[in-house]
Amino acid sequence: ILDLALAYRKAAYAPEAEREALKSAFYETDLPKFAGLLENFAGAEYRVGGKLSLADVHLYALLERLGFENAAALAATLDAHPKLKASFSKVAQHPAIVQWQSARPQTTM
Description:
The protein is mostly helical. Helix content is 75%, strand content 0%. The longest helix has 24 residues, at 16-39.
């Protein structure tokens, strides 16, 4: 999860002249690559131990952020990785996550 986040940050915080090309490469290459690795890691619903964990929340928040910026790329990636998509959906439906999302301040971040 950290490697995926760092790959995104490298593109997102690159010098402005390089940023769009690096983001495009991230969504075309890095996101599918890391999704493939995560697809094969642990269970189909939760990543660790069969119940919601900090790893699940961290991955969910990261993927949600990536989808906010490029919904089409995230949707295509999740469609190509059904276990990861199931995990993302399972976390999104968890009562604590639903409550947090309804109560948190609405920001662009």
